[in-house]
Amino acid sequence: MRSTPFFPPFKHMLFGRPPAALRHILGLQARCVPLAQYQQTFGGMVPSGALGRSSAGANSRSRLFGPEVSFWAFLAQVLERGSSCRDALRRVAAWWVLRHPGRTPPSACSSAYCQARGRLADNALQQIFDHLADHLERGVRDGQLWKGRSVKIIDGTTVSMPDTPANQQDWPQHKSQKPGCGFPLLKLVGIFSLASGALLSVAHGAWRCHECVLARGLWRLLQPGEILLADRGFCSFFDICQLGDRGVDALVRLHQARPADFRRGRRLGKGDRLVEWNKPAQRTRAWSPEEFAALPQSLTLRMIRYRIAEPGFRSREVVLVTSLLDARTYPLQDIADLYFRRWGVELHFRQIKTLLGLDVLRCLSPKMVRKELLMHQIAYNLVRALMQRAAATADVDLGRLSFKGSLDSLHHFADAIYAASKSRRRQAQLLDALLQTIAADPVPLRPGRVEPRARKRRPKNYHLLTRPRHLMHVPPHRNRPKPASLRKA
Predict the structure, then answer these.
(1) Domain parsing of the chain, residue ranges
(2) Confidence (pTM)
(3) Is 45 helix (H, G, I), strand (E, B) or coil?
(4) Are 276 and 342 within 8 A, CB to CB?
């Protein structure tokens, strides 16, 4: 009998390893060769239960393109901007040949892989995203908080997608564009953490939806004692009341339609006053009658005005409104410095849209567009988790680390980590080297730097598409020689 009850660690030394079939029966499965290099780097950050086979339904069958294979191939497409489904299929084929030498690789047609991406459950992707966001927030240290309080930033943006009838029906193009000349527009509103840079949640809708309306579905995620930073688009009596009911303080820029009258109210200092906002006289369609009736008749807020003397800023005077009423605990200059950090949300959206390719989605149906959006959210938080770990390991400021530099380092080190899959110790050394590389390349401090928003390199002088493509006629350039049939005799 193959048993060593008194010396279990020496069982394989005495009797040898059982054959593969017996190992399968005994539950001693061989270590699985990972699909992609990113699985070796991020495998511990993704909950394994979210990608398991289900007991019934589309993902219950044993397939080559199961949930785990499809997820990691899809993630690689997002992390490597511009990667096509054909490229992802080649990645899976290389993994298949490595794991099953001598067997026929998958078909070169990407149809099976595209169908497998569609079988990824939205709730599983949402579970992974929520897990990563929670992981990033739990990694925030006390020294990263603002006066001991957690700060969240909210803002909105738009993305486009392929011009298909299904996408146009859910997210119509802008009304100023002619039919066949525009692209469907999706409006996004996201909440980010100021301390960790994590994307915590996203609400989306058509371009007609106001950002405030989309944001109201995200207020439930805010916890009592937190502070919300927002631009003037979120300066609303109704929203500040709703946040106050949840114990959340708001710091927003004054809406341009509201007068900044510093002659009224109680003076707290130069450019600092307590003011009373009255309840709106009329209810808008965004509020239900019950919500409007529950609003208080007035709201005491703090209005702050300060000037910006640094070059490169369009605004020279900024007026803020906040529910942080204690001028001793929250001085004017501290609040102004905090609102200046709101600009970080613009950088976060640029990182997701420009570096990860969210600005132009590629899927052709609303169902897949939603999955692609979730995958971009997951990819962004994975890179953020890597940056947070590097900052904690090297004891550097997380705000100084470059997202682009971290993404570039990940692309190259992930290949080396994957190549060392047979040695756990070597993989750990490479992962430590990756973290050190990310932490050793901080963004340089450039105080007073002025970079105007202007392009030096001229784009190609192509005509704009003002009619559907099959009806569009582009006249020849004046310097281009005419065809022989049109030349004068």
Answers:
(1) 33-53+61-120, 123-355, 402-442
(2) 0.86
(3) helix
(4) no
